[in-house]
């Protein structure tokens, strides 16, 4: 029997182990994770956990009864495909099949590394360090109005902190959503009592304050940097596994890498999407749930369709449930459903009449139906799409 070694015990790594057993793999499975903690889920870290409303977010997976060996606190430092081994501080580990699921690491703000009071928000340890910041109601400066920045700002306002969000672009979520979708979201910051500074750049961070490029000085009991994440693939350099310009493992449509017997999945891997005609690097929870099923199928040799999901993401910010499915880059038309000044609305992007992406704010049904319509490529009548009282599936 072949031995599967999974590197990275986050969502994608854990789900790979689960999917292997679900798909009938009976051989040994070893899960190696750098963090010392029992494997856990990240979304609660910027939500309930931060506010002290949840005590932890460990996955409810019984590794022992699955027959999955867990080795935690073990960092993998290299891969030698010729020997079918990975290297760790504790020595080499042999594999027959290797699954790379090392996720991503947050991008740091140059010059802010090591400055006291500067935080990232990726790990349980990060979130644990941030809990007292909220509990003690420090003045916080959030750098970056992306998903993480918005969720942290939400929690910090809820905790009663004074919150200033510094964003280099002209609007929130500039990297993720087109202008028409992100513009209404700017108002959410002010409404919650946070201050959103757009077109604002950090010049430097000093203990207790953030100095902007235009000279403004913001008092900061704590600084939270949320300016993106990059695949954690440095350990693969020189191994022969092809990495893309974005640092992702370049996987194929069954999540195989350029090296035989090595797969990659989750936040660390990009894959070709025939649906969107582009290589996608998806940093969303759902991708770390779905991708492992494709990997497991390939490992057990079960027939499976190419991995080509409609990417899905949710966020909870400023009292709203925000959901996005698809990939709007190829759209030619955007259709509003409802008024973005209202608590609930949606935006549907079409290409040649067929939906390619949907953004739903407080309209989970639009998201669920839109996602299925995107998968099916069903053309819609834009006039009916624009009527929020008509269910999307009837448009
Ligand atoms: P990770 O979760 O990053 O897991 C990778 C693991 O590999 C880590 O534990 C890491 O320590 C380990 N590792 C890395 N390098 C090595 C090495 N060399 N050796 C051994 N182990 C290694 N998505 C949503 O869709 N909705 C949300 O609301 C949402 N909220 C989020 C909130 C936060 C605070 C964060 C950080 C992310 C959120 N996400 C959300 C994104 C989602 O959590 C990620 O897409 C998901 O965690 C990706 O899983 P992964 O297993 O690929 O990577």
Polypeptide structure, described:
The protein has helices spanning 11-22, 63-66, 124-135, 147-158, 179-192, 285-300, 364-376, 382-385; strands at residues 4-7, 29-33, 68-72, 76-80, 85-88, 91-94, 97-100, 104-106, 118-119, 140-143, 163-166, 195-197, 202-206, 209-212, 217-219, 222-225, 229-231, 249-250, 262-264, 269-273, 278-281, 312-317, 320-326, 333-337, 345-351, 354-361. Helix 1 (11-22) runs parallel beside helix 6. By secondary structure, it is of the alpha/beta class. It has three domains: 4-105 and 229-300, FAD/NAD(P)-binding domain; 108-225, FAD/NAD(P)-binding domain (3-Layer(bba) Sandwich); 319-394, 2-Layer Sandwich (Enolase-like, domain 1). The mean pLDDT is 96. Helices cover 22% and strands 29% of the residues. The strands form seven sheets. The protein has a five-stranded parallel sheet with strand order 3-2-1-7-19. A hairpin with a 4-residue loop joins strand 4 and strand 5. The N and C termini lie far apart (52 Å). The structure holds flavin-adenine dinucleotide.
Number of domains: 3
* Small molecules bound: flavin-adenine dinucleotide
Largest sheet: 5 strands, parallel
| Sequence stretches where pLDDT stays below 50 over 5 or more residues | none
Work out the helix count. Answer: 8
Find the CATH superfamily of the largest domain.
FAD/NAD(P)-binding domain
Number of strands: 26
Q: What is the average of the pLDDT values? A: 96
Neighbour order of strands in the largest sheet: 3-2-1-7-19
CATH topology of the largest domain: FAD/NAD(P)-binding domain
Structural class by sheet pairing and helices: alpha/beta
Strand content: 25-35%
Intertermini distance? 52 Å
């Amino acid at each position: 029997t072949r031995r599967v070694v999974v590197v990275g015990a986050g969502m994608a790594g854990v789900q790979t182990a689960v999917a292997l057993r679900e798909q009938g793999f009976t051989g040994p499975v070893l899960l190696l994770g750098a963090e010392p903690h029992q494997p856990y889920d990240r979304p609660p870290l910027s939500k309930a956990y931060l506010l002290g409303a949840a005590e932890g977010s460990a996955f409810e997976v019984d590794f022992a009864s699955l027959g999955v060996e867990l080795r935690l606190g073990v960092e993998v430092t290299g891969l030698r495909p010729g020997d079918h081994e990975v290297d760790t501080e504790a020595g080499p580990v042999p594999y027959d099949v290797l699954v790379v699921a090392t996720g991503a690491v947050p991008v740091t703000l140059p010059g802010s590394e090591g400055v006291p009071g500067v935080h990232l928000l990726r790990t349980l340890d990060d979130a644990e360090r941030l809990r007292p910041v909220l509990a003690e109601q420090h003045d916080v400066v959030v750098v970056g109005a992306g998903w993480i920045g918005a969720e942290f700002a939400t929690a910090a306002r809820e905790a009663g902190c004074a919150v200033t969000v510094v964003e280099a672009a002209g609007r929130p979520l500039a990297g993720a959503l087109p202008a028409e979708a992100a513009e209404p979201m700017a108002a959410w910051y002010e409404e919650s009592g946070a201050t959103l500074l757009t077109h604002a750049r950090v010049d430097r961070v000093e203990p207790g304050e953030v100095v902007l490029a235009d000279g403004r000085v913001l008092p900061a009991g704590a600084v939270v940097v949320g300016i993106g994440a990059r695949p954690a693939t440095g350990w693969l350099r020189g191994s022969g596994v092809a990495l893309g310009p974005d640092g992702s493992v370049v996987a194929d449509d069954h999540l195989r890498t350029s090296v035989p017997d090595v797969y990659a999945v989750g936040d660390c891997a990009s894959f070709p999407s025939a649906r969107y005609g582009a290589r996608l690097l998806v940093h969303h929870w759902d991708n770390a749930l779905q991708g492992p099923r494709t990997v497991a199928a390939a490992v057990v040799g079960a027939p499976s369709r190419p991995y080509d999901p409609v990417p899905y993401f949710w966020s909870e910010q400023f009292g709203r449930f925000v959901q996005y499915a698809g990939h709007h880059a190829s759209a030619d038309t955007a259709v509003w459903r409802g008024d973005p000044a209202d608590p609930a609305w949606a935006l549907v992007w079409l290409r040649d009449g067929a939906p390619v992406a949907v953004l739903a704010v407080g309209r989970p049904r639009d998201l669920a139906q839109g996602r299925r319509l995107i998968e099916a490529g069903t053309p819609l009548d834009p006039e009916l799409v624009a009527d929020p009282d008509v269910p999307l599936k009837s448009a």
